[in-house]
Predict the structure.
Amino acid sequence: MSSGLPRSELSLADWIPSGTRDVLPDEMRELRALTDRLRAVFERAGYGEVYTPALEYESPSAQAEGIAHPEWTGPRHAYRVFDEQGAALALRSDMTIPIARVAATRYRQTEPPLRFCYFAHAYRAVRPQRGQSRELLQAGIELVGAPSPEGTAEVLTVLCDALDAAGLRSYRVGLGDASLYPALLETAGVDGQVRERILGELVAGNYVGLERELDALGLGQEDRSLLLAVARTRGGPEVLEGHSGPLEEAVAGLRTVHSLLHPHAAERIIFDLGLVRNLGYYTGAVFQVYDPAHGVPIGQGGRYDQLLARFGRPMPAAGFALGLERVHIALTGEER
Amino acid sequence: MSSGLPRSELSLADWIPSGTRDVLPDEMRELRALTDRLRAVFERAGYGEVYTPALEYESPSAQAEGIAHPEWTGPRHAYRVFDEQGAALALRSDMTIPIARVAATRYRQTEPPLRFCYFAHAYRAVRPQRGQSRELLQAGIELVGAPSPEGTAEVLTVLCDALDAAGLRSYRVGLGDASLYPALLETAGVDGQVRERILGELVAGNYVGLERELDALGLGQEDRSLLLAVARTRGGPEVLEGHSGPLEEAVAGLRTVHSLLHPHAAERIIFDLGLVRNLGYYTGAVFQVYDPAHGVPIGQGGRYDQLLARFGRPMPAAGFALGLERVHIALTGEER
C-alpha cells in the first residue's frame, strides 16, 4: 500500500466516475444469456449484426469535405474526446445514426430492405445525483428501406418476439406518431419557440407544464381541450376511433400498422397519442417499451424516414433500441 | 441529399476517424463465434466474466482523496474525455488495471485466487498512416492471488487452450522474464536514462539501436557480448541451460514454469530471453503470442505482482490479452 490512509475509508465510488459501474460475473452471465436470446431472434428475422466505432467525428459529416448538413438534428454527443494530437472526436451516443451511415455508404449497391442489429454501448450525459448512466448497453435493430406501414409492423413484431424470448411477461409497447402532436399544434397556429417548449413538456411527461404553456397561448376552448385531451389519450384500439382532421390521418396510420401485427404483438400495444420522442430524427410511428417491474421505459424506437438522405441515399427506415440493463432489471423484478 | 457534390467523390474514410472501422455482418458472425469459443474455455477454467466502465478517471486513484500513487507506471490513457460539465475523464486503455481495481476493492473478503475474464474494447493512441487501431477488441483473463510458478503455468495453459479452441494451428508463445534484462543491466552497472533507452530499443526489437547504445557505454567485452547475445536468445528449453549469475536465477523460474505445463501447451513455448514488455506493471514472466499468418503479435501477457498493492491489497497476479481482430486475421490466414 502506498499511503497510510486506511483503505476502509474509501468508498467504491471513489474509484470510478459517477454514472458508471462494474458488472461482476453473476450479473454478466445473465446479461450474456439475455443478449444470446435476443441475438437469436434478430438473426432468425434476418438482421445481421454490425459494430461501428465508439469514437466518431463530432458531426457525422465533419470530414466529408464540401458537404454541409445544416439541418442535422441528431442527438448531440455528450462526450468530446481528444487524442494526443489534439484531434477532436466524440463518443458514440447511439447506434441508429452510425448504422444509417453504414447502410447508405457501405451498401450502396444492395437492393433494400437492409436489416441490421447491434449490441453496443452508447454514451450519454448525466446530471449529478440522478442515478443516470453514462454508459448504456443497448441491443436493437434497424430496418432500412422498408416504408410504413409494413416496415413499422415488422420492427414492432421483432421487438415483441425479442422481449418474449427475453422472458418478459408483463411488458407493454406504447405506440404513437411523432408527427401527430406537431400537426395539431400547426393546425392551432402554434409554432416557433412556443411549439418547442410545448413538445418539451410532452417529452418530459409534464402535463402541468403543458397546461401552463397552452393557457399562456390564449387558444380557443376547442383547440385547448383537444391538445390537452390528445396529450393524455392512451388505451386500446378504441382510442383511435372518432377523430377528424390531421388527427384522423395520423391515427389511420397507426390503425393500419396495428392491423398488420401478429396477435401476440398486437395485444402488447397501448396507443399513446401524446407520445413524442426527443431525438430529432423520428418522423412517423414512435414507441416506448414499459414493464411494470421497472419505473422507466426499457426501450424505444420509431421511424426515421429522413435520416438516410443525410448520408446521400434517401430511404425510409425504422428501428428500436432496448436498454439491456433495464430489461435485465425488469426481468429480475418480474421473477420476484 | 443535402448538397450537390456527387457522393462518389467521398471515400469511406471521410465518415469515420482514422484507426477505426465498421464491422459488417459476415465478419461479426465470425468474431462472435470466436468469442463464444474463447468464453467457453475461460468459463470451464473457472474465470468469471466482468465488465468495467469504458470511462475512467485519468489516474486510477484520482478521486481516492489522500492517496497518492507517485510510483504509478501503468499505461497512460491515450484519450482524454470531457463531459458537458467539463469533468475530465479518460477512455479505458486496457482491462488489466480496472480488473486489478475490481479484485482489490470488490472482493476484499474473498479468499484468493480470483479468476476473471473479459471481452472489451481498449482505446489506444495511433500514429498517422501506420494502420494502427484506436479501438481494439480484446479477450483475456486475469488470475489474481496465485503466485509463480503455478499461477503463471495456469495462465499459459488457459492461453493455449483458448488458442486451440479458436482453431489456430500454427501459433507460438514467446516466453521471457521482464526482470531478466534489467537485472543483467544492473549487474553491468547500467542504470538511469541509458537503461531506459536500452530497454526501449529492446521493446521495439531494434537490435541495431541496442548495439549502438551498448557500444556507447564502453562496457567490458564480456558484458557487451552477454547483453547482445541474451537480447537475441530464442529457442527451445536448451536455451535455458548453461547460464550463471542473475541470468541463471531468471531462467530457473522459466524452467519451472515450463515443467508445470501440459505437453500441448509446453510444445508451443519459445523461450525469448530478450523479451521485454513496454507496460510498466510487468514484474516476472512475460509472453507474446505469434502466428505465422500475421506479422505482429496477436496477444500478450505476463505477471504483475506489484499492481494489486496499488489498490490496497497486495497480491501476486498474472494474465493475458488477445487482440481478437488479430486472432481472426491469423485464423483466416491459416485457412487459406
User: Anything to note?
Assistant: Residues 40-178+233-335 of chain A form a domain with the BirA Bifunctional Protein; domain 2 fold (CATH 3.30.930.10). The CA atoms of residues 34 and 166 of chain A lie 6 Å apart. Chain A touches chain B through 75 residues (CB under 8 Å). Confidence is low (pLDDT under 50) at residues 1-9, 61-75 of chain A.
